Amino acid sequence: MALSFIDYAIIIAFFVITTSIGLFASRRAGKSFSEYFLAGGQMSWWMLGISMVATTFAADTPNLVTGIVRRDGVSGNWVWWAFLLTGLLTVFVYARLWKRSGVSTDLEFYELRYSGKTAGFLRGFRAIYLGVVFNCLVMASVILAGIKLGGVLVGATPIQVVLVTGTITVVYTLLGGLRGVILTDCFQFVVAMFGSIAAAYVVCNLPEVGGLSNLLQHEEVRSKTALLPDFSDMDALIPLIVIPFAVQWWSGWYPGAEPGGGGYVAQRMLGARSEKDATLATLLFQVAHYSLRPWPWIIVALASIVVFPNLESIQTAFPDIDPQFVQDDLAYPAMLTYLPSGLLGIVIASLIAAFMSTISTHLNWGASYIAHDFYRRFVNPEATEQRLVATGRWSTVGLMIVAGAVALALESAMESFSIILQIGAGTGLIYILRWFWWRINAFTEITGMAVSLAIAMFFKFGYSSTGLPELNSWQQLLTGVVITTLSWMLVTVVTPPTDREPLKKFYRKIRPGGVGWKTVRDELAESGVHVETGDSITAGLKAMMAATFLVYSALFSTGYLLYQSWGCLAISLSVCGASAIALWKSWPSLRIDGSPAKPQGTE
To answer: Taking Cα atoms as reference points, which of 130, 47, 55, 113 lies closest to residue 358?
Structure first.
């Protein structure tokens, strides 16, 4: 597809602005580890929140949503919409705890919470496991989307896409560190949102589609528009509602939706200037991620069913695309080829923005693990701040090279999504309980991580040769959750607990609520140590439930407005208003400003 001069001018201008922001931030980035990887811990909530939203607005996200809608309908998105519960739990329970911990990375948490050589091993191993292996798999999925977009929109080869976009992303990430990433994210998010909304408007009004009303009445589209799956169809209900809400949200681990917080979300919270900013940032992230962004992608996905009813029609329209990449998720970039000159340049820039914001975050986050939790902790404990920054920068380049190589071996965004979900199956409850139950130890986490990975690899490479009945994805996920959870629970009971002194120090620093720390709390009281009142878990859970109804009703309201379903819109808006009032009433008990609160009890 040929781009016009104005398209190229817009894209070049986008690259110039992005690189300039990196140069601007570079004046402070290289001073210390904290400046480079935590932006000095002085970022405001709205910038951090937008940065998290921009990060999850990856180039592969519209493709993933399009693939889901074409295969399972709009209701198929519950496979990721259910992660809202995980995110809101982080907002109202864990955001303050992370900021209060004072760690530089979420992996440093291990040697704050646990004791002995096992804690050090866990920290070092996960620095490589998450920072390199897992991180590169996630980035590869994003790069794969970039490859498909580049192939369809500008006729670029996979190698060209990796080299050009990867080089520019690495440059501004190297220059500006986390501050540069956050500032760039804010600019890129505006561009990305404008591009996705504009694209939805144009494709919806194509002659083949005939406007929104005609689209929603189309025979093939009408069956895909339901916001909830058919409750009489257990084949759809179990994987889309039952498993995500009963099991997946608390038991699984997925980047950006880690139970108990973690990863780049924890990095943003640690970069906040206060507990209040950490909490508000994660709340903004959840609201925008689930309520604001999905509908433009969904509209394009529904329109693609009319224009490209099957994979053969996509392959016919783009014969030069490698057949291995022709999956349902390719329909999104295919629809963008219908955009007019000028707008096409803006939309391509918006997709590049989505690509770069995600990759830059993962590069900076992964490099922080390598530099701080592996290099300084195990290789060079006396490393200077400048040496740590240099190590992080070299790690950034290496991670990009590895991720680019892995991307060439993947076929679809859903493939990567399913692999990551399976690898994390059964570990989520550990990350929730370790804050609120003193008995969780380093062996617990090592067991959960090892067993879940082994089960995932077995299902991926060994199960088909056993002759056992075939299991679908949710059955594999549930199997992994059950086996992994039982394994780490058994190990927790039979292995020695964490030494008492680290536990006491952790409790006094973090002040977690609940009955899970009663043993430690009583020991501190008996020794005459003043113990501050723990946070109210009940208050946090009440706010979490109110916010859950608020965000979901806002999501539904947007959908019913587009569907012109006025009765359902009135109901969803009423629920939205009632939820907002409930959240407002529960908000004061959360003491998010970090100031001393009135005693609330420890449940």
So the answer is: 55
Contacts of 563-567 spanning 24+ positions with Cβ under 8 A: 563/216, 563/225, 564/213
Number of neighbouring beta carbons within 10 Å of residue 287: 21
Percent of the chain whose pLDDT exceeds 90: 36
Q: Enter the pTM of the model.
A: 0.84
Number of other CB atoms surrounding residue 371 within 10 Å: 29
Mind listing the pLDDT tens digit for each residue in 28-38? 666 677 777 77
Q: Is the pLDDT of residue 222 over 60?
A: yes
What does residue 462 show for φ and ψ, rounded to 5 degrees?
A: -120, -25
The structure tokens listed for 527 are 């020794």
Phi and psi at 435, nearest 5°, equal: -80, -25
Tell me the β-bridge partners of 272.
Answer: 43
Token digits for 579? Answer: 């939820």
Give the CA radius of gyration of the chain.
24
The residues, any chain, with a CB within 8 Å of residue 116's CB and separated by 6 or more, are 442, 499
Which structure tokens are listed for 97?
A: 């705890």
Q: CA 537, 542, 547 angle in degrees (round to 5)?
A: 125
Of 429, 396, 393, which is closest to residue 135 (Cα–Cα)? Answer: 396
Name every residue whose Cβ is closer than 8 Å to that of residue 427 and which is 6 or more positions away in sequence.
251, 252, 253, 445, 448, 449, 452, 484, 488
Per-residue burial over 507-541, b = 16 or more CB atoms within 10 Å of its CB, e = otherwise: beebbbbbebbeebbeebeeeeeebeebbbbebbe
Q: Identify the H or E element spanning 199.
A: helix 158-204
- What span, in angstroms and rounded, lies between the C-alpha atoms of 86 and 261? 8
Exposure string of 342-370, with b = 16+ CB inside 10 Å and e = fewer, is ebbbbbbbbbbbbbbbbbbbbbbbbbbbb
3-state secondary structure of 596: coil
The DSSP element (H or E) to which 214 belongs, if any, is helix 212-217
For residues 241, 247, 253 and 258, what is the CA-based torsion angle, rounded to 10 degrees?
Answer: 80
pLDDT of residue 28: 67
Q: Is 314 exposed, middle or buried (0-12, 13-18, 19+ CB in 10 A)?
A: buried
| pLDDT for residue 601 | 39
DSSP result, 71-123: HH-GGGGHHHHTTHHHHHHIIIIIHHHHHHH--SSTTTHHHHHS-HHHHHHHH
Q: pLDDT, tens digit, for every residue of 239-275?
A: 889 988 998 889 887 777 788 888 888 888 888 888 8
Q: What is the pLDDT of residue 596?
A: 38
List pLDDT tens digits, range 559-595.
999 999 999 999 999 999 999 999 988 865 444 444 4
**CA–CA separation, 494 and 443 (whole Å):** 10
